[in-house]
Amino acid sequence: MNLRILTLALGLAALPGTAPAQSLGVQIAAAPAAAEETLNALNPVITVRGATIRVSDVFSGPIPKGDRAILNAPAPGERMVIEADLLARIARLYELDWKPLSRDIRAVVKRDSRTVSEAEILDEVRLALTDRGAPTESELVPATAGFAVQLPAEATPAVSVGQLAYDPRTQRFSSVVDVTATEGDRVVYTRQIAVAGRVFETTAVPVLTTTLNRGEVISAHDITVANVRTDRVGDGAVTDPYALVGKQARRQIKEGEPVRANQLQTQVLVSRGDEVVIFYALKTMNLTAKGKALEAGGQGDMIRILNTKSNRTLLAKVVQPHQVVVDVISTQSALR
């Protein structure tokens, strides 16, 4: 039955297909305590799939004609309000055991939907731009936002680029994107969206998965590889993820941003003033002595160490936390 005719059968003026019955800023009023129990109950918050609202969507309980369509559903993702008068007329028409106990009684109906996001739309534009000579690895920055599309949840979406213009000199583009939704062989929704913006080439660089503060050490679990706009990578960015492992943050390094060499330092294994064990590497034996670090150093760094017994200053190589090695050649160039 045509829904307009069905609406007239309810004794009402024709209802618009997607417009709400009242401003959607209302709140659902609490129903007064029922004087007596009824066979049917109102569903105050309703989510529907499809283009129509049925009797059984609005009321629960025994409903002989519950599958009858009574109203047009709102647009996908939108909602509408069914007021008390209309609810009462529906109940009378379908001989339901229900009456509103207050004029504040109402039902809110929302239509289920799925979103074709801006990212999905830009992905299709990016593929089309690649065929026109744009960089394969790129980021598209649209001139405007807010072009995501709500489609019926039960429909199958499709996105394609109908028109496209691209200027490789300025890296700017403009396009018209077709968004459609089908149910079986039937197209139930179609929309054209204008998307324009600029193409930025990207470079794969290691970034951190979490922000690290000064002094924290980078582990393999802290690193991932991301495509970052080339103009934001800049000079001094570390491009080898393995070069980050074990390094210490010289200052805070933010999540998701390229890591620069001047933000890193070799992990400090010996701090200035630390007590250390000095290993003397000789041809025939190894000797140990106690010392004090006169400067900080990381793995492999040559630092000055004071032999606290002989009171001599030596150059030693940091090998472990609080451990340094002095070979024979190093002792010959000891500093006083």
From TrEMBL:
One of its GO terms (cellular component) is periplasmic space. Keywords: Cell projection, Cilium, Flagellum, Periplasm, Signal. Residues 1-21 form the signal peptide. CDD domains: SAF_CpaB_FlgA_like. Pfam families: ChapFlgA (PF13144). It is found in: Periplasm. Residues 203-265 form the SAF domain. GO terms for biological process: bacterial-type flagellum assembly. SMART domains: SAF (SM00858). This is Putative Flagellar basal-body P-ring formation protein FlgA.
